[in-house]
Amino acid sequence: MSRSLATRIAGISDTKAWPWLLLAPSLLLVFAVIIYPTISGIDLSFRQMRLNRMDLGIGYVGLRHYLALLDDPIFWISLQNTAVWVFGTVALELACGLVIAVALDYELPGMRVMSVIILLPWFLPLVVAGNIWALMLDSRLGVINAALQGLGVIEGFKAWFADPDWALPAAILVETWHGFPFFGLLLMAGLKGIPSELYEAAAVDGAGFWHRFIHIQLPGLRMIIVATVVLRAISLMNSPELLLILTGGGPGRSTQVLSLYAFQKAYREFNFGYAGALSVVMFLLLMTCSWLYVRYSNALRED
Fold first, then answer.
1. Per the omega criterion (within 30 degrees of 0), is the bond before 121 cis?
2. Is residue 249 helix, strand or coil?
3. Counting beta carbons within 10 angstroms of the beta carbon of residue 175, is it exposed (0 to 12), middle (13 to 18) or buried (19 or more)?
4. pLDDT of residue 203
5. Whether 237 contacts 207, CB under 8 Å
6. How many Cβ atoms from other residues are within 10 Å of residue 171's Cβ?
7. Distance between CA 168 and CA 161 in Å, rounded?
8. Beta-bridge mates of residue 209
9. What's the CA gap between 292 and 301, in Å, rounded?
10. Do the Cβ atoms of 162 and 140 come closer than 8 Å?
11. From CA 56, how far away is CA 91, in angstroms rounded?
12. Which backbone phi and psi does 50 adopt, to 5 degrees?
């Protein structure tokens, strides 16, 4: 029996089906964890699914939810706020992370301890960070209000998250504080991978800090910058936790973003079909913007 089984296995291994048999467990896992939930979510966007109105049924309604989005003013406000939220936060986090990475790359005394301290905001749970900043920016007891008033920047304590003009910028600054170590850590690792011969050649040519940064460090970080920007944009667009903690989408709709709107539709109004349509729109926007960014950033160009 053992010889017969070994012979059969040997015969299968010589066929084209053998690689697929080896990949079958991994493919099954990918299908169960990624493909099936994605297809199920897309299918949900074409259905009527309101848990508080089960009398409406769960049948297909075609493009009804997508057509409703076009006439939904909150959707367009959320789309605009999402663009400001994602692009503004990613730009600030990238700038701060790049500055920190370049500074830490010099390996000055105390930089190892500083690198650990800088990473602390990223280790802090977002719920904890959000509540800490809500207290620091409190309109009555906030230490930041007290400091700004002491410096003469503001005349009196300001309710930052209750002001439609300042709520979203304040939330962006809080998210930047929490997220910039992600860029700093990965960009610093990228700088360590740049060959030292390039720096030595630049020093022989008399290149200063700025020329070395522009012509050596930035080109060497191109792939890492593209990857981190795409990953962080996906994370920000899909994660409304901080805005839910700080503002709940208010005041008015000044901090309403698509992910928060989808969350509210699903878990406050129990309209999972409409929330599914919002999720599909977010998915398409992310795919399109990521593709355009990767293409026009020349990240896949071979040097």
1. no
2. coil
3. buried
4. 82
5. no
6. 26
7. 8
8. none
9. 14
10. no
11. 45
12. -125, 110
Nearest-angstrom CA–CA distance, 259 and 275: 9
Question: What token pair was written down for 41?
Answer: 């979510």
Backbone phi and psi for residue 296, each to the nearest 5 degrees, phi listed first = -85, -10
Q: What is the share, in percent, of the chain residues with pLDDT greater than 70?
A: 91
Asked if omega into 251 is within 30° of 0 (cis), the reply is yes
Q: H-type helices in 137-166, by residue range?
A: 143-150
What residue ranges define each of the domains in the chain, with the CATH number in brackets?
A: 64-296 (1.10.3720.10)
Which SS3 state, helix, strand or coil, does residue 117 take?
Answer: helix
**Alpha helices (runs of H) in the chain, residue ranges in sequence order:** 2-13, 17-30, 36-44, 64-70, 73-104, 111-123, 126-136, 143-150, 167-192, 196-204, 209-212, 218-220, 222-238, 241-246, 258-267, 272-296
Q: Are 188 and 96 in contact (CB under 8 A)?
A: no
Contact of 39 with 214, CB cutoff 8 Å = no
User: Which pLDDT tens digit goes with each residue over 240-268?
Assistant: 889 999 998 889 899 999 999 999 999 88
Q: Using CB atoms within 10 A of its CB, is residue 271 exposed (0-12), middle (13-18) or buried (19+)?
A: buried
Question: Is this structure's pTM higher than 0.70?
Answer: yes
Model pLDDT for residues 125-145, shown as the tens digit of each residue: 888 999 999 999 988 888 998
The residue written with tokens 């719920």 in the block is: 127
197, amino acid identity: E
- Is 161:247 a contact under the CB 8 Å cutoff? yes
Rounded distance between C-alpha atoms, residue 113 and residue 2, angstroms: 61
**Type of residue at 147:** A
* Helix/strand/coil for 52: coil
pLDDT above 60: residue 10: no
Query: What is residue 293's predicted lDDT score, i.e. its pLDDT?
Result: 85
Q: How far apart are CA 147 and CA 6, in angstroms?
A: 77
The pLDDT of residue 1 is 47
Alpha-carbon 58 to chain mean position = 32
